[in-house]
């Protein structure tokens, strides 16, 4: 079983570029027994003021 967890800190406005990078199919998805890949996006806006 393979489990891989990575955390990226992305500057504001560039999250869609990072998500697009991981949306394609790679070598891992072609392995027998592959189940799922999940990419989570957390919205944090440090530049906004109330």
Topology, please?
Elements (H helix, E strand, L loop, with lengths): L14 H7 L29
Structural class: little secondary structure
Mean pLDDT: 80
Biggest pleated sheet:
none
* Helical proportion, percent range: 10-25%
Give the count of helical stretches: 1
The SSE order reads H
Low-confidence stretches: none
Give a count of the beta strands, DSSP E runs of length 2 or more.
Answer: 0
Q: Radius of gyration, Cα only, in angstroms?
A: 14 Å
Shape: elongated
CA-to-CA gap between the ends? 46 Å
Strand content: under 5%
Structure description:
This protein has one helix and no strands. By secondary structure, it is largely without helices or strands. It is elongated and about 45 Å long. The termini are far apart. GO terms for molecular function: monooxygenase activity.
Short structural summary:
The protein is built from one helix and no strands. With 50 residues, it is low in regular secondary structure.
């Amino acid at each position: 079983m393979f489990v891989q967890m990575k955390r990226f800190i992305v500057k504001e406005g560039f999250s869609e570029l990072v998500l697009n990078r991981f949306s394609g199919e790679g070598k891992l998805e072609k392995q027998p027994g592959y189940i799922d890949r999940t990419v989570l996006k957390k919205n944090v806006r440090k530049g906004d003021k109330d």
